[in-house]
Amino acid sequence: MDTSTLATSNEKPLLGASLDALGGLFSNSKQGAGDQLLEPDQAFSFSAHINEQQEISLNWRVADGYYLYQDKIKITPVSPKDLSLKAIDFPTGTQKYDEIFGDTLVYYGDVTLIQSLAVPITEPSEISLQISFQGCADRGVCYPPMNKTVSLFVPASLNTAGSGNAQNANPFISEQNKISNALFNDALWLTCITFFGFGLLLSLTPCVFPMIPILSGIIIGHGKALTSRKAFYLSLSYVLASAATYAVFGVLAGIFGSNLQATFQNPWILTTFSFIFILLALSMFGLYNIQLPASIQSKLSQLSQHQKHGSLWGSAAMGILSTLIVGPCVAAPLAGVLIYIGQTGDATLGGLALFSLGLGMGVPLLLIGVSAGKLLPKAGHWMEPIKYFFGVLLLAVAIWLMERVLPATVILFLWASLLIICAIYLKATDRLPDDASGWLKFSKGIGTVLLLYGVVLVLGATSGGTNPLKPLANFSVSQGSAERHSALSFQRIKSLEELNTQLQVAANNKQRVMLDFYADWCISCKELEAYTFSDPSVASALSNTMLLQADVTLNDNNDKALLKKFSLIGPPAILFFNTDSSEIEQARVVGYMPADDFLKRLNSLL
Predict the structure, then answer these.
(1) What does the buried/exposed string (b/e) look like for 458-470 if buried means 16 or more CB atoms within 10 Å of the residue's CB?
(2) Which member of 274, 276, 451, 507 has the lowest number of beta carbons within 10 Å of its beta carbon?
(3) What distance in Å separates the CA atoms of residue 383 and residue 378, rounded to the nearest whole number?
(4) What's the rounded Cα separation, in Å, for the pair 532 and 450?
(5) Same domain, 40 and 143
C-alpha cells in the first residue's frame, strides 16, 4: 500500500498577486459576466505527496476548458541544500498551437508527474521544493506563472533496507494523512461513501450523543400532532442543517485555519444554550403554570408553544446551533479534509466530504425520526411519562454542556441532584399500595437505584470527587494512590516561547517529548485522560518521555499561535518530538485513540 506524506503549500501572497494581474484580463474579456475566468487555484488545483519509494507525485486537476504547458513545469530544490533531483519523466501531452507560445505540448484534465530523487535519503527528514507552472484557458487568456512551495516528509528509502536507519524508520503514517491522501486519489463517489462511513463511526462517540435528546425533545414537543412523516421531516431538516454547517465550518477552517466551533465554547454562549435546554425541559414537566410575573409567563408560554408547533426551520436552526456548540472536538477524518483543503484550496471536494461525514453522523437521528411517529403513543396518559423522560435528557444535556464551564465537583453535585429528582418522580420515596402493579414496582425499583446512586454522588462531591463513575475515589487511600501512580503528569505550557524552552531542556537531556493539546470543552480530550492516559501500560511506556500539555481552553492569541504553529485546527491532538526537538510528523494522533492502539503507536515510536 502506498504510504504518503502530504505537502503543505505556501502560496497565498502569490495568489493575490496573480489575481491582481488577471484583473485587467478579466475586465477586457469579451465574455459575459457568467463566463468569468476561474481563479488560478480553481483552474489548476495542485497537490504533491511522496511515497516510501521516495517518488514525488505532482498532481494537477485542470478544469474543463483549461490546459497546462508542459515546458513551463519546473521543480527547484529549496532545502536541504544538497538535495538533487532526477529529470522529470513527462507523460505524453497534446500538441497544440498556442497564440502566445506557438506549437507546444499541453495537458488537459488530471495530470500526474513523477519526480524521483537523484540520491536516496537514508534517514527520515523533511524536504522543500518550489513548483513552477503556467496554464491558459481555451478562450485565449493565459494566467501569469504560478509558484508553490511544498514541504514533504521523506521516509527512509526502502532501498536502504539493510541499514540500521531504515530498520528504525517509523512504519506508519498518521490517520489524518491517510485520509487526506485518499482525497487526492479516490473518485468523488468513493470519497463521499467513505466519509459517510466515517460519519457512522463518529455517530457512536460522546460528541454526537447529546444531539439525540435535543432532536427527541423537538419531536416530542409536537405531542398529539406528531405523525411519522412529520417526525421524519423534522429529523431530516435537523440532520441536513447540521451536515451543511459541518461542511461550511470545515471549509472555512481549512481555508483560514480557524476553528469556528471553538469560538462558540464561550462560557456565556454555553450558559445561554444550557438555559434554553432547561426551559424546554421544564415545559415538558408542565411547570409553566407556577406564579411568575405576567411578562415572563407570556415568554415561557410562547417558547413552549413554539416547541409544539415549530416549523422545519426551527428544527434546522437547532441543528445548526447544536453542531456549533455541542461537539467542537477535532477527529481524524475532519483533520484529513482540512489538510487537503489547506493544500489545494479545493473547497468543493472538501465540503462534499464533510457534508457526507455529517450525514453519516446524523443516521441515528434520522432513525429516531422514522421510528418516532410509529413507536411513540399519540395520546393518553402514556404521553406524560415519555415527555418527562425526554425532559430529563434535556436537563442532562444542559449539565453536560456546563461541564465545560463549572468545576468538576459542582458538576458532580448537579448529576446527583438530577438523579435524586428523577428518583422522586419515580416515587422512590413513596409507599407502594398493596395492589401495586408490576410496572409500578419496577419504576419504584429503578427510582430507588437512582436515589441511592444520587446520594453516593453527593458524598463524592462533598469529598472533592470529580468522576461520576468513581465518585468515592477520594475515600479510598489505596485506590487514589494507584490512580495517581498510573495517570500521566503533564507540565502545562501556554505559549510558543514556553514550548521552545521545554524542547531545549528535553534536547539537553536527550529526551523525547509528547505534547498534548487539551481544552476543558473538548470531550475527546477528557476521554483520552480517562481511558488512555490513565492506563498503566501507557504510563510505563512514557516514563522516560517529557510530557507537555497545551491548554487551549480560552482560545486566546497564545492558544491560536500554538495551534497555527503546527497547522492544527483544535484539540485533541498529540504530537511527538525527537531528542533533537524535531517533530515526528507521521506519528501525530488527532482525535481519541484507545489505550491499546495508543500503546502500539508508542512501541513503534519509542
Answers:
(1) bebbeeebbebee
(2) 276
(3) 7
(4) 29
(5) yes
What torsion, rounded to 10 degrees, do the Cα atoms 398, 404, 406, 409 define?
A: 90
With 70 as the cut, is the pLDDT of residue 12 above it?
Answer: no
Model pTM score: 0.57
Beta bridge partners of 142: 136
Are residues 350 and 204 both part of a single domain?
yes
Provide the residue type at 313 as one letter.
W
List beta partners, residue 97. Answer: 103
- Side chain identity at 528, as an amino acid letter? L
Instruction: Please report, as a single letter, which amino acid is at residue 314.
Output: G
Q: Which residues pair with 57 in a beta bridge?
A: 49, 114
55-95 pLDDT tens trace: 888 888 898 889 999 889 999 888 887 788 887 878 888 88
122 and 197 in a common domain: no
Structure-block grid coordinates of residue 76 = 527547484
Instruction: Output the pLDDT for position 480.
Output: 44
User: Which 8-state DSSP code applies to residue 591?
Assistant: S
Residue with cell 505537502: 7
Integer Cα distance of 358 and 195 in angstroms: 9
Residue tagged 469579451 (cell numbers):
30
Q: Taking 50 as the threshold, does the pLDDT of residue 225 lie above it?
A: yes
Q: In one letter, which amino acid is 60?
A: W
Domain tally for the chain? 3
Q: What is the pLDDT, as a whole number, of residue 483?
A: 44
The CATH number for 63's domain is 2.60.40.1250
- pLDDT higher than 60, residue 476: no
Max CA distance (Å), the chain: 101
Q: Cell digits for 257?
A: 485555519
Taking alpha carbons only, the member of 243, 244, 331 closest to residue 522 is: 331
Q: How far apart are CA 17 and CA 147, in angstroms?
A: 11
Q: Three cell numbers at 442?
A: 419496577
Residue the block writes with cell 527528514 = 125
Give the CB-side neighbour count of residue 493, counting CA atoms within 13 A.
Answer: 22
For residue 48, what are the domain limits? 5-163
Q: How many CA atoms lie within 13 A of 130 on its CB side?
A: 11
| Residue 453: φ, ψ to 5° | -70, -35
What cell was used for 547? 510530557
Check residue 161 and give its pLDDT.
39
Q: List strand residue ranges (DSSP E) for 298-392, in order.
A: none
Of 385, 405, 425, the one marking the end of a domain is 405
Same domain, 19 and 114: yes
The C-alpha cell 533531483 sits at 85
Give the 3-state secondary structure of residue 397.
helix
Q: Which of 148, 163, 178 is the last residue of a domain?
A: 163
Are 253 and 373 contained in the same domain? yes
Helix (H) or strand (E) holding 514: strand 513-518
Strands of the sheet with 146-154, listed across from one edge: 74-79, 125-133, 146-154
For residue 396 the three cell numbers come to: 442532562
Instruction: Report yes or no: 360 and 195 within 8 Å, Cβ to Cβ.
Output: yes
Whether the predicted pLDDT of 435 surpasses 60: yes
